[in-house]
Amino acid sequence: MGRRAKNKQDAPLPLDLDKTYDGKVTKGVHDRLKHQSVRAHKQREAAALGQNGGGRAKKRRSGSSNNKREAGAAASKKPRQESDDDSGNDDSGGAAAGVLDAPDDGWDNASLESDSELDGSGSGSELGGSTDEFDSAEEMVTAQEPGPGALDLLGDSSGSEDGFESYDEIGTDDDDNMDDDGDAAMTFRDMERRSRMLDAQRAEDVEMAEMEQADAKAAVADGERELFALPTEEQVAAETEAPPDLPLVQLRIQEIIRVLNNFAQLRDPERSRNDYTEQLKRDLCHYYGYNDYLMTKLLQLFPVAEAVEFFEANEVPRPVTIRTNTLKTRRRDLAQALINRGANLDPIGKWTKVGLTIFDAPVPIGATPEYMAGHYMIQAASSFLPVVALAPQENEKVLDMSAAPGGKTTYCAALMKNTGLVVANDANREREKALVANVHRLGITNTLVCNYDGREFPKIMGGFDRVLLDAPCSGTGVISKDASVKTNKSDDDFRMLTHLQKELVLSAIDSANAASPTGGFIVYSTCSVTVEEDEAVVNYALRKRPNVRLVSTGLDFGRPGFTSFRGKDFHSSLALTRRFFPHTHNMDGFFVAKFQKTSNKIQVPERSSSATAAAGTATAGTARFIVPAGSGALLKRKKRKTKPSGGAT
């Protein structure tokens, strides 16, 4: 025996029928009233439209139970009250005029009064009425069909126990019938069908879009795409006078790169490759804000597509990184303390065990109690690299020739565990204030801070086991931090900087002691990506100091240095140097080279014996050896025996 659904409510009956049947409505009476209400409504629609007849006949689903469910759904779709004034048919007057249909909730709201009706106790005689009250003989047969199936108003006898239909059974009209019947409410089946149609249409649109893209790529590959035309001289002159149209410039940059990547097929026969590159350089200067000189230098380093990636990376700031001070804490403990303060962080990478990347934090990273206590140093990830390459050991004597603001100096002291001696020198006295403050805050006790010109340092102090030179440079690797580099660098600046760098690297080599049992290493680094400041300076040092050689930096990532560049050949060992770029390594542009000093004496040809830059010379056959001051080596000189001067007798 089925149960009455909880959301089913009996439709109210007209007053006269309620009195006639004493409040009890059988299935036959309910079906007759329902049929009369539906037909009366359709007749009113036909009268309003000026049509004759009783409305359109709907297609019925085969099977007795399906017909009854459709009749119940049609009745539930008419939530208006039938009144005697609106009635247009004698058959629908009186009894059907005052029937209020069930709410339009999409469910079969047939009224059940007793369990005896569900048990099939009612007989066919209770249906009452004549056959002319039904639209067809099929509906009359369905209404009079005995058995439980005919009396199961809420669905088939095999349906759910609660008596309501599943989603697949609700709504059986076709799409055409649903469109014809304007007042019919959308059923679950209609919604599902339309949803499938929309999904199919969407999938077809996606497939068509993919086919169009494939055709476009094939057209480009076959050379069928319209050739890109460079702007004329008049257009270029007009663009220089007016503010640049950035979307147009960006589109033109992409088109020129596409042409240059397949120049043989996509070029304009009347234009040369130089015309395309010159226009590309002008557009890049307008779009990214570089001056013509620096743009020319940077375009010489990369292919055009990679150059654009480099420029884009310079527009995005690098992530904030910190270095754990292992003299006071461990990285794991520091990370937990910052996480407790709401910071979102991760280790920098496998190449360092002390670095952390801070993605965001609710408090300033430079004002936390941990920072004040010296547990970490805010330091760019690229600044870790020279110290990692230098690898200072305990109880060594280390020189940081250009130390301010102290990130690399304090890292060296931490690796040495506050043993030995770290000499932190900087030529700028104002910058040394930050150096001294960081040394005290981080608890460094083995560091000596001094203020000398690095070029004269070998004459002041020498004999260091390891020397670190982070030379002053143009800053082309840190444009994301200092955008003024785009416009304030010229050829004179690069000539001055490269000359200073060459003097400093020779001074750093002369300050190292080749006889050191654990050291004799020199690391040269810059935050520049230009060849003039990197490979050219290292190659110069190898020529001027044949007593040094390049060794591996110990960094297992980064690009090898150039061994030839624009017709200039460098020493083959320059492949041991390492380059780092913002668009490939997500850190500031950097260059690192590591020397090892093999001897404190410099062998020079006889013809250059007059060029002495040292404290003394020694001769062995026809070769001369120069011993630079500060190298830690002492000249062995024979003591000349002098005869006592005789006095007059």
Structure description:
The protein contains 23 helices and 18 strands. The longest helix has 34 residues, at 188-221. The radius of gyration is 46 Å and the shape is extended. Strands 5, 6, 7, 8, 9, 10, 11, 14 and 15 form a 9-stranded mixed beta sheet that branches. Strands 2-3-1-4 form a 4-stranded antiparallel beta sheet, covered by helices on one side. Residues 1-10, 15-23, 51-66, 75-184, 608-622 and 633-649 have low confidence and may be disordered. The chain has 649 residues and is α+β, with helices and mostly antiparallel strands. It starts with 14 loop residues before the first helix and ends in a 22-residue tail after the last strand.
Rg (CA only):
46 Å
Strand content: 5-15%
Major beta sheet summary: 9 strands, mixed
Mean pLDDT: 75
Task: From the structure above, extract its key features.
alpha+beta, 649 residues, disordered C terminus, four-stranded antiparallel beta sheet, disordered N terminus, nine-stranded mixed beta sheet
